[in-house]
Amino acid sequence: MKKGVMKYLQYAVVLVVVVILLCGIFSILRRLTGTSSTDDLSAGSAEAQTEANIDEKADNSVPMTELSVTAPATSIRVGETMQLDVSFAPENATNTKLKWSCSEEGLVSVSEDGVLTPSEDSAKHTVTVTGEATDGSDLSTSFELRIYPAIDPSKPMVAITMDDGPNPDTTNKILDAFEENYAKATFFCLGQNAGYYPETVQREYNLGMEVGTHTQSHQQLTKLSGSELTKEMEDSVSAIRDAIGVAPTLMRPPYGAINSTVLAEAKKQGLCAVNWSLDTEDWKTKNADDTYKMVMTATDGDVVLLHDIHEYNINAVERFVPDLIAEGYQLVTVSEMYAARGETLDPGTIHYRTDPTTAVMEETTAAGDEDGAAAGTDSSAADTDAVVGTVAGSTADEDGSTDGTTAGTE
Ligand code: ZN
Questions:
Q1: Which residues pair with residue 157 across a beta bridge?
Q2: C-beta neighbour count of 232 within 10 angstroms
Q3: Cα 284 to chain center, whole Å?
């Protein structure tokens, strides 16, 4: 029994020795081939650390912490470009390159130096333009942009003008009609109304409409003394500047009443006076049908007078805007129409309409029976000019025939 135990012990010792030897050999082998799992881990993290160090050395990167973009306007026409103003922080950010994209692919492109260009087929779209940081900071900035069709100077155009507003109840519905059709108009606001409803003036401006002044409180300027005249115009310019951030460059004198004193004051205030060549007499007829019919008699180059403070004009606008466009008219702002026709709007001067293009005049002359009507319209427009011209020319009694017909209303 004792002998048997000894024998088992001997076997056990041999077994232990063999196991120890095997472990030793295995351990040596592993060291030689460098495949120990512990070594693996430490080698891996060391490598990762080295890579990180290399990265840091490569761009020495200071990431952006703030990014924003300012567009000079919230709308643009096809054929125009705009310079975007990109601002970021900190000033020493390493990589300030942005990747630009548009909510509707391909409609807008932005160059490396921030010049935005709408594509030829982008008209009548409202898109969101986004600039994303490429420095891994995940910052992005975006803004909305309305894209209007290009103006073709060889095609007919009219400038619809709206006086006496804003009145949010009516002005907003009128704006809706222009917005829907990607059409523009000029709003001659009263300073006092702009003061009451700056957000409506802001909406006009943001939609790309032109905002001019119709004076502060609708006084007949030709009857005011020097200081009253100055204040009446100055206050309205301030009210509009407060609402939209920029001063108007156009003014429409109440009742169309103008003389050299008013023009001299306008010049001092950087304002060009614009009256009209087609009076819809909306204030007199007070119904949408008559106003609609009057507007539809407009010819190329007309400046059309309406008022955006009257409920009955909403329906007229909703109808004539698409119908004028369907007839081939471009609905543009006063400044756009003058620029397209190469005519200037200098401070201290008075204007009524632009000359029709040669192309449009030839078309009118060549049109058979309609000639009579068209010619009639043309000559009446010329008459209006002549009458108003006389009024503008006279310095003292400018409450002449033109003012007489509109006094107390326009
Ligand atoms: Zn008025």
A1: 330
A2: 22
A3: 35
Structure tokens at 397: 């009694």
Return the active site residues.
Answer: 163, 307
Identity of the amino acid at 157: M
Rounded Cα distance between 27 and 5, Å, is 33
Give the residue among 69, 74, 83, 244 at the shortest CA–CA distance from 147. 74
Peptide bond into 166 cis (omega under 30): yes
User: What one-letter code names the amino acid at 203?
Assistant: R
Q: Compute the distance between CA of residue 295 and CA of residue 277 in angstroms, rounded to an integer.
A: 11
Q: How many angstroms does the Cα of residue 409 sit away from the middle of ligand 1?
A: 7
Cα–Cα distances in Å, from 65 out to 60, 93, 156?
A: 16, 8, 50
Tens digits of residue pLDDT in 132-175: 999 999 999 999 999 999 999 999 999 999 999 999 999 999 99
**Vertex 407: Cα angle to 405 and 409 (nearest 5):** 100
User: Of how many residues is the chain composed?
Assistant: 410
d(CA 388, CA 382): 10
Question: pLDDT per residue over 266-302, tens digit each?
Answer: 999 999 999 999 999 999 999 999 999 999 999 999 9
* CA distances in angstroms from 31 to 24, 26, 46, 284, listed in the order given: 11, 9, 19, 105
Structure token pair of residue 137: 């900071």
Q: Could you tell me if 266 and 348 are in contact, meaning their C-beta atoms sit under 8 angstroms apart?
A: yes
| Selection from 124, 144, 142 nearest residue 77 by Cα | 124
Residue 122: phi, psi to the nearest 5? Answer: -95, -5
Q: Are 399 and 387 in contact (CB under 8 A)?
A: no
For 410, half-sphere exposure in the C-beta direction (CA atoms, 13 angstrom radius) is 27
Residue 97's nearest CA partner among 112, 108, 83 is: 112
Nearest by Cα to 171 from 187, 148, 182: 187
